[in-house]
Amino acid sequence: MRSVSSLVHYIIIPALVGCIVALSILLWAPSLSTTNNSDNGLLSDLSTEEPSSLRSAPYSYADAVDMAAPAVVNIYTRTLVQRERHPIFDDPLFQRYFGKNPQPDARIQSSLGSGVIMREDGYVLTNNHVINGADEIVVALRDGREANATVVGTDPESDMALLKINLQDLPAIHLTDNRLRIGDVVLAIGNPFGVGQTVTLGIVSATGRNQLGLSIYEDYIQTDAAINPGNSGGALVNAHGELVGLNTAIFSKSGGSQGIGFAIPAAVASRIVDDIILHGGAIRGWLGIEVQESTPSLLEALGLPKALTGLIVTGIDKDGPADKSGLSVGDIITKINQQETDDARKTMNQIAAVRPGEVVDVEYLHGGQVLNTKAVAGQRKRQRQPN
To answer: To the nearest 10°, the Cα dihedral for 62, 65, 67, 69?
Structure first.
């Protein structure tokens, strides 16, 4: 009896108590029994559920390359460079022993770059520095065809040039209407170092880059896709094979890619193409003003609040659009077409994008008062490209 009593006391009663507690938990607090399962489910969700952008990311960009690469061309230029002739070669005594003209007066200089077929009728866009001064331009397609190209027009201020080739069944690049965002995947297609068409992958590192000293009008896309010498004029495309930019320059101390490359936005490039075809050159808006960014020291000298932002008008062309609108030297332009004017380069690009004849809304400070006026944009004359 004692052994049976011990068995009941030490084993059966605790077991019954445990079953009662467990049943109570299941009936009154079922969530406690599934805590671990919930945690495991959460971890499972975190490991399997991904943002839609990641889920849609392809494992291969071959389709994008297949769409864009046929419209990207290699460009080879040849330039006849005159040599400086040493006066000794014209000396009669020298000519008596060595003959006349022992050294050629000219030599052929070759260079390479890339381009993009913008239209099926043979218009090819590239950088102006790729073909500048060339005596012969040869365009080589991905399918093996080659053709001599003629220069339709150039725009040194944005470093673009439009060529024309006469070939049939030409593939044209597709342009995108989607807004480019920092972090978007991009592919750079071109002919680096003359090795042949090459594709590199990266992302959009920044947009709206200026003050680089590359050209007068700067509104560059920055990318870490590898861009090297020979890529100039090639295509920067998105993950769908659509053109987003024209590869133009690299930031490098060694001459090779260091992860900082710049491209002209496709919208700007497309507008320049249309202008050159229709008008023979780029058409840009002009207000006839000279401005300087406001700084705390300059504002203090003028007796104005240091926190004020805007562009101080330092010069006005007589009878120009700004002059006719009522602006005067010393006014501070705070907005143009409802956009802040705290960056002189950005504002210059904004004015340049306006078509001649369009009305520009200007908000400015005059004598401490906020005023508004309208100026009818004129057409800006082309200036020389900076060295």
So the answer is: -150
Question: Which regions of the chain carry the CATH code 2.30.42.10?
Answer: 285-379
* Fold annotation for 176-279: Thrombin, subunit H (2.40.10)
Residue 245 to residues 37, 100, 190, 242: CA-CA distances in angstroms?
50, 52, 12, 9
Sign of CA dihedral 139, 147, 198, 264: positive
Residue range(s) of every CATH 2.40.10.10 domain in the chain: 71-164, 176-279
Name the more confident of 36 and 114.
114
Q: Give the CA diameter of the chain.
A: 142
φ and ψ at residue 373, rounded to 5 degrees = -145, 170
**What is the pTM (predicted TM-score) of this model?**
0.73
Q: Residue 213 phi/psi, 5° resolution?
A: 75, 20
Q: Using alpha carbons only, give the angle 109, 113, 117 rounded to the nearest 5 degrees.
A: 130
Task: Considering only residues 277 and 250, tell me which one the structure prediction assigns the higher pLDDT.
Answer: 277
What CATH code is assigned to 71-164? 2.40.10.10
CA distance 104 to 107: 7
DSSP string, 105-164: SEEEEEEEEEEEE-STTSEEEE-HHHHTT-SEEEEE-TTS-EEE-EEEEEETTTTEEEEE
* Residues sharing a CB contact under 8 Å with residue 141, sequence separation 6 or more, in sequence order: 70, 73, 167, 170
Specify the pLDDT at position 140. Answer: 94
Catalytic residues: 129, 159, 232
Query: Could you give the C-alpha distances from 44 to 35, 38, 48, 244, in angstroms and in order?
Result: 14, 9, 6, 38
Sign of CA dihedral 159, 165, 171, 177: positive
Domain 285-379: give its CATH code: 2.30.42.10
With beta carbons less than 8 A apart as the criterion, state whether 313 and 325 touch.
no
Q: How far apart are CA 233 and CA 221, in angstroms?
A: 14
Task: Please check whether residue 153 is in contact with residue 115, taking contact to mean a CB–CB distance below 8 angstroms.
Answer: no
CB 209: neighbour CB atoms within 10 A? 18
**pLDDT above 50: residue 352:** yes
Residues 130, 113: Cα–Cα separation, whole Å: 6
Give me 109's structure tokens: 């200089």
